[in-house]
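Below is a filled-in request sheet from our internal design queue. Each sheet records the structural input a requester submitted and the sequence that came back. We keep these sheets so that new team members can see what a complete request looks like end to end.

REQUESTER: design group, bay 2
PRIORITY: normal
MODE: inverse folding
CHAIN LENGTH: 237
BACKBONE (tokenized):
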């Protein structure tokens, strides 16, 4: 598929972004620890569009420390869409920390989801909620399908844990920066293993700012095999 991948090359050079949908970003400005201004959001979206990206999900944090409301996020989304043209097609969901706020929103049905009731969730990088499988089962019993953000980053998870989650029906989302080594060798190795095993359903940038992403996509490299597998993520679902 990737004729340019006779050697390792950058994401920017590869054309990979024209073949994937970014399912995880913090580009909706002024709502979390991601992009702060409308101008930076516009610049990021213009740059990504220039690299071929056609579709992007805005997934701001919702957690006890950042208790964004659904109505406020929808309003900010409307403001951004009105201000940025042309660019990737924009969609709004949220990234929910599995905490008491999330459980309350789940109970009330107040969740910003992707299509088909898919809800992006995360946990602490270092420790799991005590009853994570039970919580995920509750999410599914309520009619949603959990998508676990950047599972390769969870230090407490081993490969058998990912297999069990996938067997439950939980979908897994790759952070592309993980595969580029942004979070270190251990996370990169786990990402490669999950990718080669076909356990990812989605890919995202987890972008929090233009400078970080521009540096990653222009300086870090992928090989042909990894790029081919990323382009086919989700086809086995």
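RETURNED SEQUENCE:
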């Amino acid at each position: 598929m990737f004729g340019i991948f006779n050697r390792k090359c950058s994401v920017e050079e590869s054309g990979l972004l024209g073949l994937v949908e970014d399912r995880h970003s913090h580009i909706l400005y002024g709502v979390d620890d991601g992009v702060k201004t409308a101008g930076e959001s516009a610049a990021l979206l213009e740059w990504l569009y220039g690299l071929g990206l056609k579709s992007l999900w805005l997934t701001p944090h919702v957690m006890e420390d950042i208790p964004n409301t659904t109505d406020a996020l929808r309003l900010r989304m409307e403001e951004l869409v009105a201000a940025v043209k042309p660019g990737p097609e924009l969609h709004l969901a949220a990234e929910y920390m599995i905490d008491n706020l999330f459980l309350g929103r789940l109970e009330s049905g107040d969740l910003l989801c992707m299509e088909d009731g898919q809800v992006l969730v995360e946990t602490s990088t270092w420790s799991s909620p005590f009853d994570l499988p039970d919580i995920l089962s509750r999410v599914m019993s309520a009619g949603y399908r959990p998508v676990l953000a950047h599972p390769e980053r969870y230090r407490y998870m081993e490969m058998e844990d990912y297999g069990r989650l996938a067997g439950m029906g939980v979908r897994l989302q790759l952070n592309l920066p993980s595969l580029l080594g942004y979070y270190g060798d251990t996370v990169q190795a786990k990402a490669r293993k999950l990718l080669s095993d076909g356990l990812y359903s989605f890919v995202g940038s987890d972008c929090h700012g233009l400078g970080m992403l521009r540096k990653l996509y222009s300086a870090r490299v992928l090989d042909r095999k990894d790029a081919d597998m990323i382009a086919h993520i989700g086809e086995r679902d």
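SHEET NOTES:
- The first strand starts at residue 9 and ends at 10.
- The CA atoms of residues 111 and 128 lie 21 Å apart.
FILED BY: M.R.
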